[in-house]
Amino acid sequence: MPRLLVVHHTPSPPTHALLDAVRSGASDDAIEGVEVVLQPALALTVPDVLGADAYLLGTPANFGYMSGALKHAFDTIYYPCLDATGGRPYALWVHGNDDTGGAVASVERIASGLGWRRSRPALEVVGPADREALDAAWELGAAFAASLVM
């Protein structure tokens, strides 16, 4: 059974709401055969990453960059996982009050360095996590999880 690791830093209400929607979509009853595991970025370990088949990453955009917590997670796992996880799929969601472009670019650079392949375009939410954003986050989780069993 494929394991989908959801690595997140969700300190604000909007990022946490997006996490709930992503998790709900990825865990939808219509998707059978995918184990969804949530792990806060600050608690991420090398065995977590090595034991997963795909990665769904969530972060706020902080001063034009990913959160320090997600950067710390990447710093922790980068070299130990570099040769073992290449080719694995990932997807990303980012919330920002004004802009998300720098955060998306920074995550994509590191994921590319790990040899991960982007499975879907990043979900970029600017402003409130309104119904449209939450629906898009649900869809991201559901579509990404479903792609692991197709």
Structure notes:
The protein has 150 residues and is α/β, with parallel strands linked by helices. The protein has helices at 13-26, 46-50, 68-81, 101-114, 131-147; strands at residues 3-8, 35-40, 54-60, 89-96, 117-118, 123-126. It has a single domain (3-147), classed as 3-Layer(aba) Sandwich (Rossmann fold). Strands 1, 2, 3, 4, 5 and 6 form a 6-stranded parallel beta sheet that branches. The termini are close together. The mean pLDDT is 97.
Q: How is the topology of this model organized?
A:
Blueprint: E1 3-8, H1 13-26, E2 35-40, H2 46-50, E3 54-60, H3 68-81, E4 89-96, H4 101-114, E5 117-118, E6 123-126, H5 131-147
Parallel strand pairs: 1-2, 1-3, 3-4, 4-5, 4-6
Helix pairs in contact: 1-5
Keywords:
150 residues, alpha/beta, Rossmann fold, six-stranded parallel sheet, 5 helices, globular
Largest sheet: 6 strands, parallel
Helix content: 40-55%
How many beta-strand runs?
6
Task: Indicate the mean pLDDT.
Answer: 97
Number of domains: 1
The second-level CATH architecture is 3-Layer(aba) Sandwich
Q: What is the N-to-C order of secondary-structure elements (H for helix, E for strand)?
A: EHEHEHEHEEH
Gap between N and C termini: 12 Å
CATH class: Alpha Beta
What share of residues are in beta strands? 15-25%
Q: From the alpha carbons, calculate the radius of gyration and give it in angstroms.
A: 14 Å
Overall 3D form: globular
DSSP helix count? 5
**Which assembly state applies to the chains in this document?**
single chain
Full CATH superfamily name: Flavodoxin domain
Helix vs. strand class: alpha/beta
Residue ranges: pLDDT <50 for 5 or more in a row? none
